Amino acid sequence: SPSSYKFVCENNILPLPCIRTIRRYFGLVKSSCGFDKEFFEALRKRLDNQPIQQRHGILMLDEISLRESASVCSQTLTYKGLIDFGNEAKGRTTLSDKANHGLVLMLQMFADSFRQPVAVDPDKNLVKWNHIQILYETDCKHPAALRVCPKLSNAHINLANTNKMRVRLATQVIY
């Protein structure tokens, strides 16, 4: 959080750069929503040099909470803070479509410490429990060895009263 960052800087706990310096660096990075073709090309080049065992990874999903706000980027004259799905939905958002959540897709390799966000999609809606149920029902149609979420079971989806507060079940759904 900004207050924690200021606390660490003011008390000389860590030698951190000034907030203005960080804002300048972020201003140099061109970031957009959706998938970046240049990233996938760079990833392909990186994986071509890796042994087969280090090419396997997992695509993780995470949801973050965002502060609802809309602003204008003076460099590109575009709005920031609105729902944005990249090039897939250009021109379909209005000023009332302020994003309050973001879905982050992250790639993590199994046999390497490489970890990279692949896409960030700001949205108004949370991932609904119904999406997890549909995933489970679709996944159950595959043989056990080919399931995408093999640890997900009926006990995770149809919770009994005693299972609703089990942290173990919740973390298995998330991971």
- Summed over residues and divided by their number, the pLDDT gives a mean of 75
Query: Which consecutive residue ranges, at least 5 long each, have pLDDT under 50?
Result: none
How many β-strand runs?
Answer: 5
H and E string: HHHEEEEEHHH
Helix content: 25-40%
3D shape: extended
Gyration radius, to the nearest Å?
A: 20 Å
Q: What composes the largest sheet?
A: 3 strands, antiparallel
Largest sheet, spatial ordering of strands = 1-4-5
Question: What is the SS-derived class?
Answer: alpha+beta
What's the domain count? 3
Euclidean distance between termini CA atoms: 25 Å
Count of DSSP H/I helices:
6
What is the strand content?
15-25%
InterPro entries: TNP-like_RNaseH_N
Protein name: Transposable element P transposase-like RNase H domain-containing protein
Organism: Timema douglasi
Tell me briefly what this model is.
The chain is of the alpha+beta class.
Question: What does this molecule look like?
Answer:
The relative contact order is 0.11. It contains 6 helices and 5 strands; from the N terminus they run H-H-H-E-E-E-E-E-H-H-H. It has a 3-stranded antiparallel sheet, with no helix packed on it. The chain has a two-stranded antiparallel sheet with strand order 2-3. The chain is α+β, with helices and mostly antiparallel strands. Residues 32-121 form the Transposable element P transposase-like RNase H domain. InterPro entries: TNP-like_RNaseH_N. It comes from Timema douglasi (Walking stick). This is Transposable element P transposase-like RNase H domain-containing protein.
